[in-house]
Automatic annotation (TrEMBL):
This is SDR family oxidoreductase. Residues 3-235 form the NAD-dependent epimerase/dehydratase domain. SUPFAM superfamilies: NAD(P)-binding Rossmann-fold domains (SSF51735). It comes from the Bacteria. It holds the Pfam family Epimerase. Coiled coil: none annotated. InterPro entries: Epimerase_deHydtase, Lipid_A_modif_metabolic_enz, NAD(P)-bd_dom_sf.
């Protein structure tokens, strides 16, 4: 199968591309290159030929001839959406819908969109794919809007599928330290202390990056009727944790780490998610990882590379810091387009 994957130089994208190539697919990547410097360790043995292009500038010819598109390249995460909400909507909503339109026009039969459980926002009880969404941020709102606009595009020749990922964690060469378990693991290794200002009571579902990759592998090869116009929460029902439990799991994986909590509520987003649908309706999918194993994986990686505090806190592995740097140095403009051609130094 010929597969176009957007965001192949991202935290998830580099893992997804390698897994799809390993499965025998012919993979082409698309990435604008914002995070090219964020390389933590040598951990991917297979890479896709990558088109250096902003998704907003893709054409029908760029996508023609592919059997499936896996769309992961958007501006993330919530702090970035708060910093530049208008551009976030332009890229994440309009850009993603345009890509789906191009795919349909070009005859691409499958479109797998990386959505997020963040669309649930604040929820009482356990939510599933039939629950009303309640996004709290520009990032989450865009995810919900893309689902709303692309789902009705499905027809006999075009099958969109929406993967609402739980909060990702786990090792990746294109590491991110601005997501909860990875961030706490970095703190545990570099400072031997996790000092939370909140009480850690909000709920978060977690899913390992390789389990997300597995869900994509299953989605693009599943029988059409299993994935056509379907939404899947990606994770495992047993892997909903309170934030304080995540901190305790991480602390246990890093000997000598002290874990403390504050007494304020902190982030008001809290949701528990049901993942029974993906386990029962997506052929071949089951979560292979849990938080304990993921934290241990990170401990082993950090020990191997001797992760230092400058790397952990630097811009290379934190989305907001890197994009603020590119904007401050005027390498990208206020619409998040590169100001000079690739390779230009003047």
């Amino acid at each position: 199968m010929k597969v176009l994957v957007t965001g192949t130089e991202g935290y998830l994208g580099c893992l997804v591309a390698a897994e799809l190539i390993r499965d025998g697919h012919d993979v082409t990547g698309v990435d604008t290159g914002f995070y090219a410097q964020g390389w933590l360790y040598n951990g991917v043995d297979l890479g896709a030929k990558t088109l250096r292009k902003d998704i907003r500038n893709l054409s029908v010819e760029d996508v023609r001839g592919h059997d499936a598109i896996v769309h992961m390249a958007e501006l993330s995460n919530d702090p970035l959406g708060a910093l530049i909400p208008n551009v976030t909507y332009d890229v994440n909503h309009k850009g993603s819908v345009k890509l789906a339109e191009l795919a349909k026009q070009a005859g691409v039969s499958r479109f797998v969109y990386m959505s997020s459980c963040s669309v649930y926002g604040v929820a009482d009880g356990v939510v599933d794919e039939q629950s009303q969404v309640n996004p709290q941020t520009a990032y989450a709102e865009c995810k919900a809007m893309v689902e709303r606009d692309v789902l009705p595009m499905g027809d006999d020749n075009f099958s969109p599928t929406f993967m609402r990922n739980a909060t990702a964690y786990g090792a990746s060469p294109r590491m991110r330290f601005d997501i909860v378990l990875n961030n706490l693991s970095g703190l545990a290794y570099t400072t031997k202390k996790i000092a939370m200002t909140s009480d850690g009571t909000p709920w978060r579902p977690l899913v390992h990056a390789l389990d997300i990759a597995k869900s994509i592998r299953c989605a693009i090869t599943a029988p059409r009727e299993a994935v056509h116009q379907q939404i899947f929460n990606v994770g495992k029902t047993e892997h909903n944790w309170r934030v304080r439990e995540i901190a305790e799991i991480v602390g246990a994986a890093f000997p000598g780490c002290e874990v403390t909590f504050g007494d304020n509520a902190g982030d008001n987003r809290s949701y528990k998610v049901n993942f029974d649908k993906i386990a029962s309706q997506l052929p071949g999918y089951a979560s292979d990882w849990d938080a304990e194993r993921g934290a241990q994986q990170l401990a082993e990686v950090f020990t191997t590379i001797d992760l230092d505090e400058a790397t952990f806190t630097g811009r290379g592995h934190t989305r907001l810091k890197q994009l603020e740097h590119l904007m401050r140095t005027k390498q990208i403009d206020d619409q998040m387009f590169w100001t000079k051609p690739a390779g230009s130094i003047v």
